[in-house]
Design goal:
Elements (H helix, E strand, L loop, with lengths): L6 E13 L2 E13 L3 E4 L7 H10 L7 E5 L5 H4 L2 H8 L2 E5 L3 H5 L1 H7 L5 H4 L8 E3 L4 E5 L2 E7 L8 E5 L4 E5 L14 H12 L6 E4 L5 E2 L1 H23 L8 H12 L8 H13 L3
Parallel strand pairs: 3-4, 4-5, 5-6, 10-11
Antiparallel strand pairs: 1-2, 2-3, 7-8, 8-9, 9-10, 11-12
Length: 283
C-alpha cells in the first residue's frame, strides 16, 4: 500500500516452525521508496522477492529499478530475500558495520543466534557494499535522501532511517510493540535508542517492521509505552533475581505469565533478552 508520496509498505507473511506440531504465524514489513530509482528498506523472508516484484509491476515500476537495499539489521525476517534480490538486480547493499558478520555469513548467525527454521527463512549470505554509521546521508536522487540513525539494543548494529522529504521515520525493530514478544540484546541500549528517536523533531509518520503506520502524537505515545514495557520487564527480572541466578527458561515462563503472552513465547530468543536484563543488573 502507498503510505506517503514516495513510500510504499509491503506486509510479508511467514511462519516460524517451532516443531512439527507448532507453527507460529508472523509478518514483517518491507518498504519501498519511489524516486528516480527505488530504495528498498529490508527484504522480508526468503522468497519475499516474489511479493516485492509483483507489487513493483502493479504500480508501474520494474524490479531492475531497485538501486539500493538498506538493511536495518541482520535478523532472518529482514535479510531473508536479500541474496535473491541482489542476484536479480545488482543493487547496492547497505547496512551498519555491527551487522556485517551475520549478513555476510548467515551460517555464523545461525550458530550464534539459532532461530527455529532459520534456513527456511534466509536465502543466503550477501556481501555488504556500503557500511553506514550514525549521521550518514544516503542520496536517493532528485533531492531525496535517508539519514542513518544508529539505534542499538535490538541488535548491536540496528539502525533507523529518517526520510525528510515525507517526514517518515523507519524504525526497524528498535521500538518494541507492547504486548508482543520482547526481543533485544541490550536492555539499556534499547531504552536509550527509543529515547533518541523520541527526541527527533519533524517526524510525522513512523514505519516499523511489525506495526501499522503511526502518525503524529500516536507515534510518540507508542515510544513512551515501549519504554514502559521494557522497564516493566526489567523490574520483574530484577525482583526475581535478587538472591539467586535463576534458570533462564524458568524465568522465561514467569515473564510470559506476567506479561500475559502465549505460552509458546517462552523460547530461547526470549531467554536471550532476559539474559540482557541480567547483564544490566550485573548478574
Amino acid at each position: 500500500m502507498q503510505v506517503t508520496k514516495h513510500v510504499h509498505a509491503l506486509r510479508i507473511p511467514f511462519q516460524i516452525t517451532v516443531s512439527p506440531e507448532l507453527k507460529i504465524d508472523r509478518f514483517v514489513y518491507a518498504y519501498l521508496i519511489y524516486g528516480p530509482k527505488i530504495c528498498l528498506i529490508d527484504t522480508g523472508v526468503k522468497s519475499a522477492e516474489t511479493i516485492i516484484f509483483d507489487y513493483l509491476r502493479k504500480t508501474g515500476r520494474q524490479p531492475e529499478e531497485i538501486d539500493m537495499i538498506v538493511l536495518t539489521h541482520s535478523h532472518p525476517d529482514h535479510i531473508g530475500s536479500v541474496h535473491s534480490l541482489k542476484k536479480a538486480t545488482g543493487c547496492v547493499i547497505a547496512a551498519h558495520s555491527g551487522e556485517k558478520d551475520w549478513i555476510e555469513d548467515v551460517d555464523l548467525q545461525c550458530r550464534e543466534r539459532p532461530v527455529p527454521g532459520f534456513h527456511s527463512l534466509v536465502g543466503g549470505s550477501v556481501e555488504i557494499d556500503r557500511l553506514v554509521e550514525e549521521g550518514d546521508i544516503l542520496n536517493l536522487g532528485d533531492g531525496l535522501s535517508l539519514e542513518v540513525i544508529h539505534t542499538p539494543g535490538h541488535s548491536r548494529g540496528s539502525i533507523s532511517l529518517y526520510f525528510p522529504a515525507d517526514r517518515v521515520l523507519f524504525s526497524g525493530d528498535a521500538v518494541p510493540l507492547p504486548g508482543d514478544i520482547p526481543i533485544y540484546d541490550d536492555y539499556t541500549s534499547s531504552v536509550s535508542s527509543i529515547n533518541k528517536l523520541k527526541d527527533l523533531e519533524g517526524v510525522h509518520t513512523m514505519l516499523s517492521a511489525w506495526d501499522i503506520p503511526r502518525e503524529s502524537d500516536d507515534l510518540y505515545q507508542l515510544m513512551a509505552e515501549s519504554i514502559s514495557y521494557l522497564n516493566r520487564i526489567h523490574k520483574f527480572v530484577a525482583q526475581n533475581a535478587v538472591n539467586t541466578s535463576p534458570d533462564l527458561m524458568d524465568l522465561c515462563k514467569q515473564v510470559v505469565s506476567n506479561l500475559e503472552l502465549p505460552t509458546a513465547a517462552a523460547t530461547p530468543l526470549l531467554a536471550r533478552s532476559l539474559r540482557a536484563n541480567l547483564k544490566a543488573l550485573g548478574r
